RNA sequence: GCCCCCAUCGUCUAGCGGCCUAGGACACCGGCCUUUCAAGCCGGCGGCACGGAUUCGAAUUCCGUUGGGGGCACCA
């Protein structure tokens, strides 16, 4: 029944799949994962940017490889010619580099198992197909797409498995010969053996499938190209992959792949199917859930390190101390084999909170640097008013516009020395308030543009008791202040309420509105100080003028 | 329809037969602090999907049901 005589696969690592019932194993009962120099791979399809879910898969592969001193292979699965683009490859590589996921073998990093693009591996696939054909594991099938379609619907109507009937399985050699020479198109199918296929999943234990629910599947199309299931297996075998870490949407493909491994007489790797990343509606995370790519998140002012840690800990126990972990920390301490198995929902709220925590854990200087980079990227310095209006609609709106601009390759604006210095001076004032970097703009954008009042703000100012007197007195006081420092400013401002016989709240409100045109700003004394004496006085006087 | 995976607060999770009156985090609500907004601290709300079985004892083991997801392609 097995012409090749290779049907007793010896798994390269881990326990051989037992024939017993699939049973969930507890962590401490799980066999230790082979830890000596595993080879793992991340195999994205370049049909677009790097999706956050894929990024997560890449991350886990990377961590696992580094943790066990293994090799991290990057392979481009671009066999779908109609959807794959070189531009997408460039984007994906860039995102991976941004996350620090450097690969050991793959595009740009030649290795002994290349090439690393499927479109360049055609001859390798066909060699293997030829071998499988010789050993009788494959047979030609002449069924047309229409026949198959009819078969499928009939099977479904009967409540049977909708798998191939095996019609061409036992075609006589002469008939095959005759139809092939007649030029009839045919595909190549795998002769799936009787019985069941069991494979081991590090997270779930053994998973079993009855082989008759798999059906003889196509491995080579009538145009001579090879299908995904064959390509992955041949790639993984020839690249000597020992651990396949991928999304659990691949679980149902796995038995087919195992059948090919076995037909090839190759060792079956260990599998780790990780839970998928879902949106808040419990569907696979997609564009309608908002940001699904790293670049859009960073355009909103999320830090790459935070996104990376968030993605990592989504299916694991959360601990505040990991918010500021580095990639090296993850490699040192994160255990991929203890991941949960239920799908994870991407929660932007928690990511935001984490980002805020991260920012607060860093120094003022660090924040200043990130802010300058960020504001430069979003074009704030070139157009503080326009970008400010965008940001007022929410950081996501801003990020979307920035992202579009970047894909059109608009040149970013460059900060001049004055803007950069001002940003760094403001950084300490907003340090406790910023969650994502974009929050800086509604909070402190007013420092960068002339005093401006919205009708509502002006109304507020007019409604504030004693505003005119407050503004005039404060302006005069600030002008004559011997020392221009925060304590002096504070002393002066605090003396105002008693002298003017006003409530402190009213005084503070008038000054805040008067200097910024806003009701929310960083600390009043610090803000006046950063503004500088001339600006501070001028603004308060301008505001006072609006009241007469 | 068939096959597979999954199932603890709204969300991410802890839980390994008695330490569970189910613990933590985000979000939400309230309080404190306070010149605004935050941050911070304190408190509150809120969950084992359902039904059987095993057991002295079940969130935990087994079976079923329900629900969600994925696959069943000459897509990857």
Task: Describe this protein's structure.
This protein has 548 residues and is mainly alpha-helical. The protein contains 22 helices and 11 strands. It has helices at residues 52-67, 86-99, 122-134, 145-157, 173-181, 228-238, 254-264, 294-300, 304-313, 327-333, 348-361, 364-377, 384-392, 395-407, 417-430, 440-444, 455-463, 467-479, 486-500, 504-516, 524-531, 533-545, and strands at residues 39-42, 71-74, 138-141, 187-190, 196-201, 205-210, 218-220, 243-247, 270-274, 277-278, 344-345. Strands 3-4-7 form a 3-stranded antiparallel β-sheet. A two-stranded parallel sheet has the order 1-2. A two-stranded antiparallel sheet has the order 5-6. Strand 1 (39-42), helix 1 (52-67) and strand 2 (71-74) form a beta-alpha-beta unit. Helix 20 (504-516) crosses helix 22. The chain binds one RNA strand of 76 nucleotides through helix 4, strand 6, helix 6, strand 11 and helix 11.
- The number of helices is 22
The description of the largest β-sheet is:
3 strands, antiparallel
Distance between the termini: 100 Å
Q: Identify low-pLDDT runs.
A: 1-34
| DSSP helix fraction | 40-55%
Name the shape in a single word. elongated
- Fraction of residues in β-strands: 5-15%
Radius of gyration: 32 Å
Widest sheet: strand ordering: 3-4-7
Provide mean pLDDT, rounded. Answer: 87
Backbone structural class = mainly alpha
Count the strands? 11
